[in-house]
Amino acid sequence: MNHTKLRQDFPILDQIVNDEPLIYLDNAATTQKPIPVLQAMDDYYHHNNANVHRGVHTLAERATTQYENARETTRRFINARETAEVLFTRGATTSLNWVAQSMGELVVHEGDEIVISYMEHHANIVPWQQLAKKKKATLKYIALTAEGELNLDDAKAQITEKTAIVALTHVSNVLGVINPIQELTAYAHQKGAVMVVDGAQATPHMPVDVQALDCDFYAFSGHKMCGPTGIGVLYGKRHWLEQMEPIEFGGEMINFVHLQDSTWSELPWKFEAGTPNMAGAIGLAAAIDYLENIGLSAIHDYEAELVAYVLPKLAAIDGVTIYGPTDPAKHTGVIAFNLDDVHPHDVATAMDMQGIAVRAGHHCAQPLLKYLDVSATARASFYFYNTKAEADAFIEAVYATKEFFQHGTI
Ligand code: PMP
């Protein structure tokens, strides 16, 4: 990975914050956008902007072609069988809500069980709570091991013939662990359950093949993988999407509208009511091209190297607690930690004074933090554009922060 060259693609990273060079370690929240992504969207608005699907004029055709090409790029990226299985949404949250509402209507009945885990993001908890309440179903949680991995024995105990849906995150946005989705999907299917995967923290960092995973649904967001905000994806297997009712109704998603009733368009447009986010989809496709150009395996390997470098250094600081495995081989670039006797918000503020962007709070995972018996943590999350020098600066800043709160100087 040639960082000197690569970082020229991210002008935002080259700036001074609080008199220090910016070190952006909040990539689990959102990632920065390389010039080719900005250019693709700019180019679209400069030259090709028109509403899609309905027009016969040249610009409408160009916009439609670009939008549908973006869908094909996305299909190839996750290795879906066909573009009919790739729905554009606003982001992972919307994708998961669509599945919970529409698929929930189809397969969840009174007395059924929905199984999630303690490490889920709120986006993969709250929609299932709402569904469980509506259907008088039970929401169950898979326990974690002491190291913060999914407890697979408990997963097998929780997923039973009563389970209608299993919904799990591929990669945790707090603990940094990768879950064995392929194995869990096979187990869920064996019990007759539908498998939904929250891939928001996976697609930016490693190759994902939905056919190999065999999950029924896979959700992710563009903005966490160098793409723009406001665009995301819901992959679903055709036979489910065909049976499901759309969640939103209006233009674009219909075939015929009669006075009292309407018929739906074919997949994938049946789910995409209203004018879609064309520029967003085009930006996402440019982000996919950008990541694929570097190589998702290369990104994964580089981040693994970075974690192997920084995690032991962080763990070695007296008074630091790391949440999730301390074995770097089991850890992605998301590192949640606390410093004894210092509130994580104070840690994040002190780091910001040193030019380093980290997040503090509950990371939209309140049940997990309660499970870990902690009210908040600091979180540094690395991406492929972060360097070892930045990792060193991060470690130094944690030492300096500790020193500051002990003796009042940075
Ligand atoms: N799931 C996980 C694991 C996440 O980290 C996030 C974003 N923090 C989401 C879902 C929700 O993504 P978005 O806010 O882009 O819809």
From TrEMBL:
One of its GO terms (molecular function) is pyridoxal phosphate binding. Coiled coil: none annotated. Residues 23-394 form the Aminotransferase class V domain. The keyword Cell inner membrane does not apply. Its cofactor is pyridoxal 5'-phosphate. Keywords: Pyridoxal phosphate, Transferase. Pfam families: Aminotran_5. Its EC number is 2.8.1.7. Transmembrane segments: none annotated. It catalyses: (sulfur carrier)-H + L-cysteine = (sulfur carrier)-SH + L-alanine. Belongs to the class-V pyridoxal-phosphate-dependent aminotransferase family. Csd subfamily. Catalyzes the removal of elemental sulfur and selenium atoms from L-cysteine, L-cystine, L-selenocysteine, and L-selenocystine to produce L-alanine. NCBIfam families: sufS. This is Cysteine desulfurase.
